[in-house]
Design the sequence.
């Protein structure tokens, strides 16, 4: 918690509390108070994942790394994580699709969608098929629908390889931990159920994967229409292969950090 230029310890009774700064209309998901060592375990995993992709660590993380890591390494209890509920049994594509839509339209998964340079290339190509003026006639609507399906199939086939599916399962499990801490055990069970389907249902027919790609296409089209092109800054793609995490945490330090610690972050 940052207050008057200092990073101070958050009271233990606040751990597990959602901190919604923007109310129901906010586009950003709420913050969640978590324990210091639990958050540091997630940071260790994210750091290793980032380096494995050959990416640089975000500037914000590098600025805060000194006070975060000056304490002892995370203890054994942090490695255990939280006690998760049993995964929901999603027995059909209908159940998978309903669960995926429920989660992806909720506040906790607002940032989950596919975002890659290839997606932007294909969406740009599709947008060039659209007339600049006037209505889109029935024939053109059919062409655009086919183009959308072709883009979706291409992205699924080229992107969701076994290693990407494994990474996505890990990300869903971490999201289930977040939801469990927040008291959303039913949503956590559904999230774990979706993670399980990635080992059973092929990507081309998995409703969760299809929705992630469709949302990515819609977001890219909206961005390009507004003159915003992530390809101009490839580093912004960041989590290629992993939808951007909607969950955020507030780290509860084991000990209060002094004003000097805080001022040194920008050094």
Sequence:
């Amino acid at each position: 918690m940052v207050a008057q230029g200092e990073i101070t310890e958050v009271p233990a009774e606040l751990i597990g509390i959602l901190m919604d700064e923007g109310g129901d209309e906010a586009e950003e998901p709420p913050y969640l108070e978590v324990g210091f060592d639990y958050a540091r375990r997630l940071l260790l995993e994210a750091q290793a994942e980032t380096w494995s992709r050959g990416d640089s660590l975000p500037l914000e993380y590098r600025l805060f790394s000194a006070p975060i890591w000056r304490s002892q390494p995370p203890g054994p209890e942090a490695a255990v994580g939280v006690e998760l509920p049993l995964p929901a049994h999603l027995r059909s594509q209908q159940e998978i699709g309903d669960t995926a839509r429920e989660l992806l339209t909720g506040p906790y998964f607002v940032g989950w969608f596919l975002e890659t340079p290839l997606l932007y290339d294909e969406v740009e190509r599709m947008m060039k098929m659209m007339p600049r003026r006037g209505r889109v006639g029935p024939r053109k609507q059919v062409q655009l629908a086919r183009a959308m399906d072709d883009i979706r199939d291409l992205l699924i086939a080229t992107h969701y390889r076994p290693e990407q599916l494994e990474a996505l399962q890990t990300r869903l499990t971490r999201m289930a931990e977040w939801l469990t801490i927040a008291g959303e055990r039913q949503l956590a069970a559904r999230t774990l159920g979706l993670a399980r389907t990635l080992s059973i249902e092929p990507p081309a027919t998995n409703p969760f994967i299809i929705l992630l790609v469709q949302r990515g296409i819609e977001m890219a089209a909206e961005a390009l229409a507004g003159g915003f092109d992530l390809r101009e800054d490839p580093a912004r793609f960041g989590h290629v292969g992993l939808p951007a995490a909607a969950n955020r945490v507030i780290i509860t330090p084991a000990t209060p950090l002094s004003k000097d610690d805080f001022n040194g972050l920008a050094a």
Notes: The chain has two domains: 1-81+247-267, 84-246. The first helix runs from residue 36 to 52.
